[in-house]
Amino acid sequence: MTSIGENAFKGCDSLNAVYISDLEAWCRIKFNDRSVGSHANPLYYAHHLYVNGQEVTDLHIPNGVTEIKDCTFEGGAFTSVSIPDSVTSLGYAVFAYCYSLERIEVAQGNPVYHSDGNCIIDTERKYLMAGCKSSIIPNDGSVTLICIYAFQGCRELKSITIPANITWFSVSTFEDCSSLEIVKFEKNSALTMIGASAFEGCYSLTSINIPASVTTIRNRAFEDCPKLKTVYYNGTAKDWEEIEIDNDYFEHRYLLNATRYYFSEGEPDEAKWQENEYWWHYDPATSLPTPWIKKNS
């Protein structure tokens, strides 16, 4: 078998195991998914992968495998993944919806990828290809872009810190991270783009800090984020108006209806309070956004 067509396993909600005899052959299958969750990979439903009758929880990609295609292990109930130095081509969404995944390791000597902070990183391009519930994105400049589906379905991921040198969130970066509560941006963030569906389905997200460097927020970026009530924006009200936000109000209703605070490093003076009633600063103890409270005059 070399390919499985789109929707081949659509509606197979009761599927609870996938049995194979050759893990290397599994890596060669092309799952014709136009998008993650389009039902070509039975693991999306089954979660449990058995090789020669033994369930795989610690996934070791066989040495000699050179390519892992899109969605190959999507939904798998793995706790760890080891990738050999022979893998030089890694598709998108390879480990999407792997809820239990907590350790990722790429063998030293791999000419294309390396691992750091339980993330898979394309070394030359500085792309974060895949993460997991325990990922810590390195802030040493080795990552500038978080790829499509990199953290999709990491439902046990509760917080993430975005290094200042990240310039772009691609499509569905943190989609369906339903336990994600805290997204912390380092100061002087260079982020310019929040991609389509980047935080869609982040049901636990109550607030978001948007850097002043952001120029574009794509469609559905915060769709299905019903608890999102507060936006801490690093720029001014004028800067906010200049952000290109795709113009479907319904898809951005949670973002646009949230209370928006603007940044003030020092305590706002009376002129600022007259300009706007919502201001915030970084708490010196936690480095988290914290509202300024207006003192009674």
Give the topology:
Elements (H helix, E strand, L loop, with lengths): L2 E2 L13 E3 L2 H5 L2 E2 L11 H4 L2 E3 L2 E2 L2 E3 L6 E2 L11 E4 L5 E2 L12 E4 L6 E4 L2 E4 L4 E4 L14 E2 L12 E4 L5 E2 L12 E4 L7 E2 L12 E4 L5 E2 L12 E4 L3 H5 L2 E2 L7 H5 L1 E5 L6 H6 L3 E4 L6 E3 L6
Parallel strand pairs: 1-3, 2-4, 6-8, 7-9, 8-10, 13-14, 14-16, 15-17, 16-18, 18-20, 19-21, 20-22, 21-23, 23-24
Antiparallel strand pairs: 4-5, 11-12, 12-13, 24-25
Could you explain how this protein is built, in words?
The chain is mainly β and 297 residues long. It has a single domain, classed as Leucine-rich repeat, LRR (right-handed beta-alpha superhelix) (Alpha-Beta Horseshoe), CATH 3.80.10. Helix content is 8%, strand content 26%. It has helices at residues 23-27, 43-46, 237-241, 253-257, 270-275, and strands at 3-4, 18-20, 30-31, 49-51, 54-55, 58-60, 67-68, 80-83, 89-90, 103-106, 113-116, 119-122, 127-130, 145-146, 159-162, 168-169, 182-185, 193-194, 207-210, 216-217, 230-233, 244-245, 259-263, 279-282, 289-291. Strands 11-12-13-14-16-18-20-22 form an eight-stranded mixed beta sheet, with no helix packed on it. A five-stranded mixed beta sheet has the order 19-21-23-24-25. A three-stranded mixed beta sheet has the order 2-4-5, with no helix packed on it. A hairpin with a 6-residue loop joins β24 (279-282) and β25. The protein is elongated, with a radius of gyration of 21 Å. The mean pLDDT is 94.
